[in-house]
Write a structure and sequence with these properties.
- By secondary structure, the protein is mainly α.
- Helices cover about 65% and strands about 0% of the residues.
- The protein contains seven helices and no strands.
- α5 packs antiparallel against α6 and α5 packs parallel to α7.
- It is flat.
- It starts with a helix and ends in a 6-residue tail after the last helix.
Length: about 140
């Protein structure tokens, strides 16, 4: 059933002229919205159980509303210091070169996995790799 549904979507995307044309036509967004609506209806009707939402919600034998887990604000400062130390300890020139390779591959037709893997091995962060891809591809704004 999953395979049949996947083929149905692929056929619809092909009929629209490919993935980019389907995005421009709003096909994927409409399918996501329809699936989200069907899911929400199933939850509301009780056909789909979501623990804590439509079954076993607070007060349904839980003994009241639990207290939120306290988060120590110093954790963010600690993680920021760890990231700064990580960036300081790596070979910045090698990371910059690897990120340039990622961006060049993204602007061309090369497979991105190898340059992305190399950038990560050299110490680039996921955010830095993502930034290189955004520079090459831009950011999609649905509309």
């Amino acid at each position: 059933a999953v395979e049949a549904e996947a083929w149905r979507h692929l056929a619809a995307i092909d009929a629209l002229g490919g993935a980019v044309a389907a995005i421009d036509a709003g096909y994927q967004q409409a399918e996501i919205e329809a699936a989200a609506y069907a899911h929400a209806r199933a939850v509301e009707d009780g056909q789909r159980v979501v623990v804590g939402v439509n079954r076993f919600a607070h007060g349904d034998d839980a003994g009241g509303v639990p207290e939120p887990f306290p988060v120590d604000p110093s954790l963010a400062d600690h993680r920021a210091a760890q990231l700064a130390a990580w960036r300081e300890s790596r070979d910045g020139a090698a990371v910059a070169a690897a990120l340039a390779d990622v961006e060049a591959a993204a602007r061309g037709t090369a497979n991105l996995l190898e340059p992305m893997g190399e950038a990560l091995r050299r110490g680039a962060t996921l955010g830095e790799v993502s930034d290189a891809l955004r520079r090459a591809f831009g950011v999609h704004h649905p509309g």
